[in-house]
Amino acid sequence: MNQETEVILTALRQRTGDAEFGYRMQALFAHTIMRLGWRILAINAKGHPDINAQAADEEVLIQVKSNAHRSASSILELSFDDVEGIRAIGRRTGWFALLDCAAPVQWFVIDSQRAKSLLGRPLHLATLKANCDAEISATCSRHFHEIISNNRVRLPTLSFHVLSRRALIGDGL
Prior knowledge:
This protein is of the alpha+beta class and 173 residues long. It has one domain (2-168): Trna Endonuclease, Chain: A, domain 1 (3-Layer(aba) Sandwich). It has seven helices and seven strands. It has a five-stranded mixed β-sheet, sandwiched between helices. Helix 1 (2-16) crosses helix 2 and helix 2 runs parallel beside helix 7. It is globular and about 40 Å long.
């Protein structure tokens, strides 16, 4: 299934371009966390955070990125705005979610405090993996693979706006 996901995502990125692909992955992550029972409150095409969700009695702020992972030395750097937009305060928690699009396609989901400690330095994917919440990352990866597999035929027609609208009304994939 993982290799199938990589092929589907590569074809989608080639078809849509990097920017639109990133927006779609953001909206697909919203559908992924809906499978955890979270309710989507907002998906933002601009600004920070990318996703506002409700999980039990907490508001969850999420910044989403995707990485094409074109080489073993792929590096990412978190910006101040990325981290500030997901800052945990009171009953609000924050997460940074990175989709690594190389096989094995997987999500690295990192809590805001840990993400803050990574701010301002180049990060290899191995560093992000070492700092992620392994359980939530694996669960999100599993649900994401199911979504991609179940929707592989119609995925090219599911724009960011369609995916976002569906997530906001609770109509998950």
